[in-house]
Every structure is written in structure tokens, then in C-alpha cells.
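Complex record, two chains
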Amino acid sequence: MLLSTLTIILALTSAVFMAVTLFVFYKYIKSYRLPREQYYLLLGFIHLKWIAWMYISFTVILGVWTAFIFLNK
Amino acid sequence: MGIFDHNTEDFTDRHFPGQDRLEEIVLYTRKHPIVLLPHVLGFMASLIIFPMVIYTLKSFITEPDSLVFPALFLLLFAGYTYYFHRFFLKLFNYYLGITILTNFRIIQLQKTVFFINNKDTIDLHKIQDLKKDQNGLLSTLFNYGTLVVEVSAIHETKCLRYIPYPEKWFQALNEAKRIYIDKRREKKIGGLAVDEREVERGDRQFIPRETLHTSIHI
């Protein structure tokens, strides 16, 4: 019971940290936008928002998978 | 529009914190993506290793009421959570760390999401010497290198590492420095000696010889 609770707390903390990170990051880059004519994508095709969505998805998927592991132990 | 056109546009803090009113960005870049390669490979390996470890542990621990698996899982989950958050923070920090060439100076912004917010600047007129280093197989193949800037006032060299397209930066820096010094010299002798557009192009032949040889300390 205790271990399950701790795992849930850890998963929720992870989600909150992810949200705070994205908020602080996007707040800064929206305040200081670099010139569009020189902007280039990572490796020529990777958009920053793809990385942000990957981060969100990964945090959520890991949390769900953790719950699945605990339910199926 | 030339980079020294002093129109009424105000660039204060437009593209980066501390940007001056008349300061325009000539070039900017992040480090070459090769700096992310070890972290990306490590993360991809962890995507395979972590589930394998969990399932291997689960298969070894067969007692239904055992607390060993939940305790171990919690530890591994905590460790992996820290690891993957750190990986994504590294990606975001990569986006925030920028080297900028403006019409006045070179700025290295060393910023992270939470902990670091440093800025290092080199005024263009203080650059004594500039060198481009592009040694090694990877740097030649993937076209990145180091720009070594020797600063005259402090006789110190500053290195801009992992700069993509170093030749382009080398040429742009030299040109920006030349134009900036010409412009400062022109202002110090009072009024325009030549057509401003020709100075922006770095066309030195139109600057009168007696103007160049006045003893102005720049």
C-alpha cells in the first residue's frame, strides 16, 4: 500500500515537473523570439513542438505503464 | 536594409535579454546537434533496457506477497524518472544555449530552463585575432568547428565551440568586425567622410587616406 502510494506520488510529481518545465521554457522563448528568416529546425526537420509532445507523451505513458505493472503484479 | 541603418526602430530586448536599441542580429546559431548524440543514444538504449530489467525482475520474484519487487520497482522507477526528465531538460537547454553575432558584439547565451542564465559578450572592436579550428573526422564530415577569438584588452582567447558552418561564421565575423571598426572610426572623426552605404559594404577604397591615418584610438 505504502509503496503503491509512493509510486503514485512520484508519477504525479513527474507530471507536475513536466508541466512546470514546459511552462517556463515556452514563456522564455515567446518573450525572446529569434529572427524567423534565420530560424532552422533541429537536423533540418525536427520541430521544437515535437520534442515537447514527446516529453508530455513519455511522462504520461510511463505513469500509465507503472500503474499497469502494479495492477498486474 | 544595411546592418548599420540607424532608423527609428527600437530593438531593445527584442530577440534576447540585454539587446540594445540599435543592435540587430546578423547571425545566430546553436551548437551543432552532434553534442546531443551521446544523450540521444543513451536515452534510446534506456527505452529497451528499463522495461527488460523490470520484466526480468518480475519473472525472478515469484512470491505473491513479496515486497521485494514493489520496492525495487519504486527505486528503478524513481531513477528512470530522474533520468528521462534530465534527458528532456538537456534537449530544452540545447535550444536555449545560443551564440549570436550582432552589429556590435558577439554574445554567448548560456541558459538553462531553471538554473543557469549566463551571458558572455565580446565587443567587435576588441577582437584582435580570429581563428577557425576544424580538426578531426567528425567535425569535417558534419561541418562544425571552433572559432577562437583573441580579445585585445585582456590578451585572452575565447572559444566558441561546436559552431556549425564555421567558415560562414568566420567570414561573417570578419566582415562585421571590419564594418564596425570603420563605422566607429568614421564617427570619431566627426561626420561622414564617405557614403554610409559604401562603408556598410566594407569598401575601404572610398575612405580618404588622410582620414585613415589620424591618430584615433579605437
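Note: Residues 23 and 71 of chain A are 32 Å apart (CA to CA).
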